[in-house]
Amino acid sequence: MTTSAPESTAQVVSSEEIRDMLLNLVASYLEQPVTDIRSDVKLLDYGLDSIFALTLCGDVEDEYGIEVKSTLAWDYPTIDAITGFLHEALSERV
Amino acid sequence: MSHLAYAAAAEFDRLLGDPRDTGRLFSHARSLALDEREEFPLEICRELDLLGLPAHYVPVAHGGALRNFGDTLQIVRTIARRDLTVAIAHGKTFLGAASVWVGGDPRQARELGAEVARGTAVSWGLTEREHGSDLLAGDVSAERTAGGYRVSGEKWLINNATRGDLVCVLARTAPEGGSRGFSVLLIDKRRLDPTSFRTLPAARLHGIRGADISGVAFSDAAVDHSALIGAEGDGLEIVLKSLQLTRTLCAGLSLGAADQALDMATAYALARHNHGKPLIELPQSRRLLARSYADLLTAEALTLFASRALHALPGELSITSAVTKYLVPTLVDQALARLSRLVGTRSLLRGDTFEHGRFQKVLRDHRIVGIFDGSSVINLNSLINQFPLIARAHRRGPADEAGLRTASTFTEALPDLDPAALELLPRRSSGLLHAVPAAARELRSLADAGAVPHSLAAHAAEFAEVLEEVTERIGRHKPTPVAAPAHAFKLAEDYARCFAAAAALQLWLRNRSAVDAEATHGLWESGLWLECCLVTLVGRLRPVRTEHLVAEGGRDPEEAVDRLVEPLVAQHTSGQLPSLLPYSRLGTPA
Ligand SMILES: Cc1cc2nc3c(=O)[nH]c(=O)nc-3n(C[C@H](O)[C@H](O)[C@H](O)COP(=O)(O)OP(=O)(O)OC[C@H]3O[C@@H](n4cnc5c(N)ncnc54)[C@H](O)[C@@H]3O)c2cc1C
């Protein structure tokens, strides 16, 4: 995963890009093909436990350079929900 | 004279009086008699209430006396040094109340603060018969009603569930559960319909036999909405943050246990003769004492750092508390096992032959410390879960060097306890591990200047090497969903030992000129205690077969540790307890 500097990433990121990033992330955690992961299924249903879901926020920070609450995946339990939240947060920043 | 860090604890000790005096309420004789009868230490707990101990469980912001967490921890240690049953039975109120300090609103916190200060016992109900550490599996449910909640289900193996008027419960508020499906309710048993709950008989125990480890079963118990701490669904987050505070506090229980055992063993080794020689002159006895003292000093240094870091680096407490709750009880279990080999048969005797039977009691009592409030396995697992963030923080470099300096330097003023600053995961790196190479270089200069032996600088350099290997392995760790692989647990243990070694380095370097060298009998001068911590920790991180080494003409690396016997005996005979900082034992030297 690439580490982007916070200053250089203040640009519009599309929902599709965010969703793809999250799908790939979850697929690589689970060691499953990305085509097997659905964005409307709860992460918990994939066996990603609560503490594991916490670490997601680190990856999101690395990718987009924004600080999100460590409970991100608790409050937005599917990839679609996280995507919606991140898209809004990133658009506001621009 | 006692060091500032221990002043509040020493004052408590003085008020309680010499425990060897059977005329005192809180005497060894009474503690052991109560244990024999499996009786709750009610009068002793009342005495602690009268002396104002409960106020130390309440932050000053809520009307209490807790300004410096380290003071409260050292008071708990002082109580544990006399009797772990009492420390656990009484100290449980801090655990029960912590969720309110973390997640309660100002009115709830003020009201609870007043209750606690009056001596009301608060218990903490997380565990259930079928579910231990897996908090999200809990079945106790709280269903919303017009005025609040209707609570049903059973919490079991709960300290003070019977005696405590208040019980802080983690309950399922969404039938499907999940991270946002649980909430914390502070339930006042006095205000419940008495037919809607019952307490369960106390479990019979191996150690802390007098404690009230019982349970409570609710059946459609109506509680008011004001019992909800934080928002509905905040339960897991509040509990995980509260555990960061309580797991740190548990170190005080372990230190108190080690204090007692080492003090008894030292007295025994000085008095007992074998083959015409006092035990203390036999090399193997010295080794057992020295290794145990090194473990105690390591545990004490880590605890001093952790309790300051709780103020100075609260955002990293998810790491610091997991390291502390794993390593301190583990080191103390190890020390207790060694010391019981030294003491031999007397470590098993009950009754009046040897120290009122205190040795066998502390061995039994301490067993629970590594299990409750998150066992060693759970804390290591928590570290494994945090590996990706640890690696990431390490790549990014140090972020809070000022916080690290405050956490390490005894004379620096601590910021107030701020539960709002706690994080479920570390956001950045404090630089404790980053600071190791620079610390090793600092020791090299000190060695070149003749202030410390070259061997100390060499051990620090070796540790810096080992640390690099360990962080590299953590960077390569691939997170796995749910069940961490067995080999990762060893890596987490290694990480914890590196953390402790790094904390020891900072503590010695930042405080060496401020600590009274004479009063500490050579422990601080020339870095003796630091060297012993490094030797024993690195010995575990990078084991060598001593007998091979010696057979090939090398030195036994643990010889360095044997040098601890001298300050240990000097402290003992001058009426001090074995400790990093001067602490006088009560009464005249034995
Ligand atoms: C004296 C005493 C006082 C107590 N006081 C309280 C109290 O006041 N409040 C309260 O809520 N509870 C209290 N407890 C309960 C105690 O905290 C739990 O028993 C503890 O959480 C461990 O749970 P368990 O061993 O019962 O079960 P489990 O958590 O189910 O563990 C069983 C075994 O599974 C293994 N295991 C579990 N999780 C993992 C993992 N993630 N990775 C690998 N292995 C794992 C471990 O080997 C463990 O021994 C008390 C217990 C005692 C004995």
Automatic annotation (TrEMBL), chain A:
Listed Pfam families: PP-binding
GO molecular function: phosphopantetheine binding
SMART domains for the chain: PKS_PP, PKS_PP_betabranch
Tagged with keyword Phosphoprotein: yes
Domain Carrier, residue spans: 13-90
Residues annotated as transmembrane: none
Entry's Gene Ontology BP terms: antibiotic biosynthetic process
Keyword Phosphoprotein assigned: yes
Top-level taxon of the source organism: Bacteria
Keyword set, alphabetical order: Phosphopantetheine, Phosphoprotein
Protein name per Swiss-Prot or TrEMBL: Acyl carrier protein
Organism from which the protein derives: Streptomyces olivoverticillatus
Lineage, opening ranks: Bacteria, Bacillati, Actinomycetota, Actinomycetes, Kitasatosporales
From TrEMBL, chain B:
Residue stretches making up the Acyl-CoA oxidase/dehydrogenase middle domain: 125-220
Keywords: FAD, Flavoprotein, Oxidoreductase
Pfam families hit by this protein: Acyl-CoA_dh_1, Acyl-CoA_dh_M, Acyl-CoA_dh_N
Domain annotation Acyl-CoA dehydrogenase/oxidase C-terminal: ranges: 233-383
Residue span, Acyl-CoA dehydrogenase/oxidase N-terminal domain: 33-119
Cleavable signal peptide: none
Family: Belongs to the acyl-CoA dehydrogenase family.
UniProt protein name: Alkylation response protein AidB-like acyl-CoA dehydrogenase
